[in-house]
Amino acid sequence: MKSPAIMCIALLLVGATGCASVNLSAGFPAVSATVEERTAAKIAYNARLEPDEETTGRLRSLLQRKLTADDVAQVALVNNRDLQAMYSDLGVAQADLVQAGLLKNPVLDASVLFHLGPVRPDIQLGVVFGLLEALYIPLRKRVVAAQFEEAKLRVTGGVLDFVLEVRHAFYAHQANEQLLDLRKTVAQALVASFEASRRLHQAGNITDLDLTRDRAAMERSRLALRSAEVNVRQSRERLNSLMGLFGSDTEWAIEERLPDVAPEPVRAAEVERDAIARSIDLGHAKQRIATVGERLGYDRATALIPSTEIGASAEKESDEPWGIGPSVSVPIPIFDQGQARIARASAELRRAQHEYHAIAVRIRATSRALVERVRGAGDRALYYRDIVLPLHERIVSEAQLQYNAMQVGIFDLLRDRQEQIEAAVEYVEILREYWMARADLLHLMSGRLPAADAAPPAGTAGKRSVKENGNGQ
């Protein structure tokens, strides 16, 4: 026998809940638009495990030319599987948002009592659902909606951090390629020097000590060359990993030399202003304040009566007719009046507010420090390019003239040539430092603090679920 009250409650629940679907790519368009606006690169969300034909075609087209830093970043953004896994966080956050709008399923309770005699068993039926669940849905959805906005900012920041990692890896590999060429030149020069020393030693013109010294210098250059070869292979595989490439796709090429120092000056005031205005970190911290504020409002609203269950129960005892009636379950707020939850949310709100101001100070200080770092590396690179390298070139030229006039020996000429190449190695290393600093500055301008200066990870302020303490689902 079906109770009319139970049937009415079931129909009410079905009507209130309705159908809810989850769009796992929700939030991705906003992330994509922000990343494209700040990096001029496109990202793609692969709903399937393999990328679509358009993405694959674009990838093949990029790999057929000599790659720049922007090209490598673009390949990595559309082909790296770690990024695709990160995008799934948006689907998780969207699922939580949908879940927050759903009522708990009604609970059916049934029991049968058998008597120790020729008496029919007693039957008890009951169905209950949370009355306040429906009233708390808007509050719960506001909390989870704020968490969803946090997830979008978190994923956006993660993508921008990934772009910086790719740019660092690119400049490191480009510098390693350039250093390898220089080390080859050094090794060749010292091999030539040793061969000349060996001939002179056989003729009795130099001592064993001089020959041994020249051989030691040659062997050191071979070790340096071998280390440079390993560095190139390591940095190349690092880029393969970031770009998600394997097989024949790893046969790519890049521009062989690091670019020269950028001609445009870096203006500290503009950098600081734009870094604050475009900061994803500040936006995330601000959204965390909003999330904790919503959580505090939810805790205050549900402090005394976090849940109330109503329903209907039916009972039939042996030969008696069915007895039907309503039921209600309300907690009595004697021991727990929600004061701890409210205090915790208040403390989290204060922490989030302090974190916001701390991040703002950190961004301003980092912007000034990065400007000085870029300027310093640029000045040193220009000094090497305009002063030091021309001086060594002149020394080698003069040594060549004196060698032709038989005023200096071959060893002096080779030694000057080696010092010239070592100065070129130092120039490449400074140029690499400069472009690394430029990448950090561009990263800051795109809205993220570089890793060394990044804000601490979000605490429980932005992560605590509305499901805690039995409130919500």
Number of domains: 1
* CATH-level-2 architecture: Up-down Bundle
CATH superfamily: Outer membrane efflux proteins (OEP)
Low-confidence stretches: 1-17, 468-473
Core attributes:
single chain, 473 residues, alpha+beta, Outer membrane efflux proteins (OEP), 7% strand, disordered N terminus, disordered C terminus
How are the SSEs ordered, and which strands pair?
Blueprint: H1 4-17, H2 28-39, H3 53-63, H4 69-79, H5 81-100, E1 107-113, E2 122-130, H6 131-202, H7 208-243, H8 268-277, H9 280-301, E3 309-316, E4 323-329, H10 339-404, H11 410-446
Antiparallel strand pairs: 1-2, 2-3, 3-4
Structure, described:
By secondary structure, the protein is an alpha+beta fold. The protein has one domain: Outer membrane efflux proteins (OEP), CATH 1.20.1600. 66% of the residues lie in helices and 7% in strands. The protein is built from eleven helices and four strands. It has helices at 4-17, 28-39, 53-63, 69-79, 81-100, 131-202, 208-243, 268-277, 280-301, 339-404, 410-446; strands at 107-113, 122-130, 309-316, 323-329. It has a four-stranded antiparallel β-sheet. Strand 1 and strand 2 form a beta hairpin. Helix 3 runs antiparallel to helix 4 and helix 8 (268-277) runs antiparallel to helix 10. The radius of gyration is 35 Å and the shape is elongated. The two termini are 32 Å apart.
